[in-house]
Amino acid sequence: MDQNNKQTWSFTGTNGDFKLPQSDRNSYLYFPLVNEGGMMSSVSPKLHGQATSGHNTFLTPPLSVEDLHNSRDSRNFWVYIEGKGAWSAAGNSAKQNAEFYTDNADDAMLEAGFLWHKVTRSSADLGITAEITSFVPVGNDKVELMRVTLTNTSGKELTLTPTAAVPLFARSADDLRDHRHVTSLLNRIYTSAHGVEVQPALSFDERGHRINHTSYGVFGAEGNGNEPLGFFPVQEDFIGEGGSLDWPEAVVLNRAPEAGKGGEMHREGYEALGGIRFRTITLQPGASNSYVIVLAMDSQRIDVSTLMNKYGTTAGFELLLADNKALWADKVNTVEFHTGDPSADQWMKWVTLQPVLRRLYGNSFLPYHDYGRGGRGWRDLWQDCLALLIMEPAEVRSLLLNNYAGVRFDGSNATIIGQQPGEFIADRNNIPRVWMDHGAWPFLTTKLYLDQSGDLEFLLQEQCYFRDNFMSRCRERDASWDEAAGPYLRTSAGDVYKGTILEHILLQNLIPFFNVGEHNNILLEGADWNDGLDMAAERGESVTFTSFYASNLLDISRLLRTVKELKGYETLELAEEMLHLFDSLGTSVDYNSVSAKQEHLNRFYASAPNKVSGIRVALSMDKVADDLEHKAEWIFEHLRRNEWVQSEQGDGWFNGYYNNDGEQVEGEFTEGVRMTLTGQVFPLLGHAAAPEQIPHIIAAVERNLLDDRIGYRLNTDFGGIQQNLGRAFGFAFGHKENGAMFSHMTIMYGNALYKRGYVNEGRKVLESLYNLSVDFETSRMYPGIPEYINEQGRGMYTYLTGSASWLLLTMVTEVFGVKGQLGDLLLEPKLVKEQFDAEGKASIKTIFAERELEVVYTSTGSSVYGEYQIHSVTLNGIKVTLQRVSEGVLISRDLLSALPAGKSHLVEVELA
């Protein structure tokens, strides 16, 4: 292969399928394979990757991204060719690796779609081609399937002996290094008619030494269902003395299998291998033969006969693959875009998939995501719901309600998320930590839900509070806490206390107002959105999230006035302890005094020391709204007066942080400019940035943070380790949280610009991310967006990123302007000229009011944003009387709800 040829993936149809030639000439690529039943796999172009159902149950060896090209562990399929020797259909042999940069190297073509993966590998020298298709079938079975089709592409007959070889790890990721050999002694290995199964006697992990019931296996059959010839169940016997998984003695010397056909064998105390020998066959030129390999896990010994009847033939494989493609296409095509760039529209399908993947994988179990033990964090619960509100809105109400059960009465929240919805657990490591931003996100998501649904009654739904032995935002411990009483806040009488969702929201946003540092901004505590700012717990302050909380307070105030207007509620019932937080209703607090705020907060903590009276008080809706608005406006004025950095260049920006020495972090210093993108996003996203400040912020971002090579950096180079701020600055500049292009904040910046009416500037931001992501020569990633782009332009931590939810949300609600306003449909397009097709059309398919809508915008005049407005709207061909608002036009929910369910409805919008 000519190493100078440009390499890139390209779409092959209209539904996201793509191909990548010479796919194995990339070191860090992987692809997700997953189902709702808990099977979580990843596969590389050379079939490296892992298969697991959780941290303690890895079928194959757990790995990190470096193992994709350095480890010899892989799903391998060997072919011994009579007279020519051993060849790996997956490309994983020592000989193939040695020939990788020579003219004898194999050709490899990857094809993939939602969610299937196929690699076709050909050796011109040997005259053989292998096509390997992988996917995880729909349903609850923890199974991964692999079909291998061998084809004779030479002019002569080939005599082949195939052997599948998949290492079976069969235990916890904790055992990869610690006790690797000792835990292999627990292995109980069995062979049966179709393969090799391992059921370790015990599990050794952080849960203790306990009886193990989980069983793991690799099984195979020829495409017609015929059983294999025999098996190699022990890894060391398969590779031979001095051999290796990429040059095993059993294949290279074509040894007979250890266990014969149909024979049962039992071995104990060794590293296991799913080694499956198939019968020797002779293929005539052009002829093919197929094999199905099944990787499976179960909570007990595997019923191999049932398993193989279901999965062990090529005919069954084809049907299951079709079901799999249909399921994922349905999920992804819930939202579809049509613009002047069809490739970008298909790319957005992969972005739409990413929030679903994050729900299924959490933040772990893909090669880059080698931190943590699975599950999602508090932030994830709320930000993933942003996408679900668009893709699967019917499920969101119950999810939101369950999530609020994790809120403590002190405004903080549980940090260990259970497996079941609404399950929260006291910190298992007994390490108290509070991320100061956590309280801000639930209202943002809930507000979107209220706008999409109009379900104001949700605010009055009751939910319990989480309780553990931490109090006062984890500054104190409650020695009287009895874990047996359950993780619930209780009243003085011992009853579980429940408060309304609105009460939860108010606690989350009011308590931080008083929890300030010496510069009167909210304390940084353990960290904020940027987990890397974790070393300023005493004196650090997050100015940026102070602006977020202030915007929440103002929006909650406005929401209360709306509730009063629409529902007629004059009063609001809240726990009596919360009276302390509405100081304007009683003893007022001097907001300019840090000590006065802190003392007031301490009095609140003392009034509710991990229990409440259970008595509720009725407060005036108007007075509560006034109190919140007063607090918000005080913060806005404080930030604009005290935290604005005026640059010598004439522009300016907001300081985002104070460090643990109480020093302002951002500004123009003798060492250089220090600026964060986060510090600008939240004042823009909410109400803190005054209209006249916005152009100055944009100019400062363009000057200080935009890098043509990698996009909008998260921060400038602060120049060395900042031990008074956070570990992020120990990372090399240009990587991860220290100056990389962090997709999440870049997209939120674009979203904020759209919201503030700076559409062309917002479009530029989103386009930069798109162009960086699809430039495969640099980004080296499949379609979608990464968590971040590093200094070299490579996409990092692909698939599992909350930024996908934000991009989907931005495209639907801001770019296409399809959004809710307390249940009604608001159309406010912000499309630019390039987004209309040759006929002047741009469209979106989405769900609103439980109806599938296709909204088609047609530009009959100018397609330049700012020069067009909505001229007319028709619904299924019938003209709609326009209700114009300052933002656009409204279509009542009642009109949409009257439409038949279960079919698509056409909304045609003329722009003129």
UniProtKB/TrEMBL annotation:
GO MF terms, alphabetically ordered: carbohydrate binding; glycosyltransferase activity
Domain Glycosyl hydrolase 94 catalytic: 622-817
Pfam families: GH94_b-supersand, Glyco_hydro_94
Keyword annotations of the record: Glycosyltransferase, Transferase
Residues spanning the membrane: none
Domain spans labelled Glycosyl hydrolase 94 supersandwich: 109-312
GO annotation, biological process: carbohydrate metabolic process
InterPro entries: 6-hairpin_glycosidase_sf, 6hp_glycosidase-like_sf, Gal_mutarotase_sf_dom, GH65_N, GH94_catalytic, GH94_Enzymes, Glyco_hydrolase_94_b-supersand
Name of the protein in its database record: Cellobiose phosphorylase
Organism: Paenibacillus monticola
